[in-house]
Amino acid sequence: MEERGLRVAKTDGAFFSKISTTISKLLIPTKIGINGMLISIKRNSVLKNYETCSKNEDKEKEEALQKKYEDAFILYLESIDKFVMDSIYKKVRARTATQFEEEALSKYYTVIHLKDTQYLEYKHRKQKYLLDLDYLSIKGDNKTKLIARYNPFYVSKMEGIYKGILKNYSVQLADKVSASIIDRDNIYDSIFETLGDYVENILPIKMELDGKEKYKDIAEEIDKYNSFLVGKLDTRDQIEKKMYLLAISRKLFTHSLPLVVAEQCYEKLLKETRHLIISSKIDKKKEKAYDLLIDLIEDFNVRLLSTKIYWESPAKREEYKKFWEEYQAIDKNTIDGKVKKEILFIKDELNKIEKNIQNKHIIKFYKDKLAEYGVLRSLKNSYSKGKNYTKKVVRV
After folding, report:
1. Per residue, what are the HEC states of the chain?
2. pTM of the prediction?
3. Tens digit of pLDDT for each residue in 323-360?
């Protein structure tokens, strides 16, 4: 009897376990319904408070209204967070989740992982993740009126979040002591990734709300960047794509991505382009990389260095001032002007690049270019063993 009783107890345990799992699966849609309704209520509340703050003209009420709006925003995000844990997590665990839900949970844990190492980034990234998740659900339901109402709030919040993320990266780059070379490379990659995400997903909505006229100064750069979103990109394309992102950032993120950080980003792209030139084995690819280098140098000077106020020393400031005056004097629309511009840029590159073993190949490439344009002349000299070699001397 005891043996039989144990067997019955074991069977009953398995039975109730199966029943529990079945009930859990049945309750998941109910959970989603409850959480969805809660999100809808909190969303309406935050939108109402946002609209009230936007229309308010009474300075005395501004602080109280702003606090009410921020409180509503926190409750709204908490309701989406609860939805992720109560509904999506359980669906993934019960293996009833869609591919979208599985990816959503995977992204959620990627964000959570930042909490222990990069708390500021985690804070911004989590807000971004939760807002994106709800925005995608609204778009998926094709609620036209709700989307039109939601967009101004969504862009307003996302604007602050992206600026916070970029500002945090700027602070990390400023910490030259603790940041290793690998860490800094990762930060640069993160900056470009964040800028690209903004231009592709937030800027189109913002342009629709504000009107395209407001962005006419960077319309060409936006179009050029968008042209790189289709098709397979090689290394040169990737660098050029980043160049347009930096150009756009000088208009949209002047404060959150300060000039000193943007300067470092340009220098990183210049370094990558130099490496691309010397690593290209095919002449056509080498020349295309060189053309990109010239465009990048010009963009760097026009958009950034010409606006730079604080220099490391008065001597460097005066040196650049001379370079800039020479650049402005060139008629860049003529063939002769384009050649003069290239010569000016290459000479400047030779002055700036460290004369070490790592840069010997690019230095040789630059000198060969100057020789092509007749700026350098070749003089035959004899070596100690009787062999001739060519020494290039800058023509005075």
Report:
1. CHHHHHHHHHHHHHHHHHHHHHHHHHHHHHHHHHHHHHHHHHHHHHHHHHHHHHHCCCHHHHHHHHHHHHHHHHHHHHHHHHHHHHHHHHHHHCCCCCHHHHHHHHHHHHHHHHHHCCHHHHHHHHHHHHHHHHHHHHHHCCCHHHHHHHHHHHHHHHHHHHHHHHHHHHHHHHCCCCCCHHHHHHHHHHHHHHHHHHHHHCHHHHHHHHCHHHHHHHHHHHHHHHHHHCCCCCHHHHHHHHHHHHHHHHHHCCCCCCHHHHHHHHHHHHHHHHHHHHHCCCHHHHHHHHHHHHHHHHHHHHHCHHHCCCCCCHHHHHHHHHHHHHHHHCCCCCHHHHHHHHHHHHHHHHHHCCCCHHHHHHHHHHHHHHHHCCCEEEEEEECCCCCEEEEEEECC
2. 0.82
3. 999 999 999 889 899 999 999 999 999 998 888 888 89
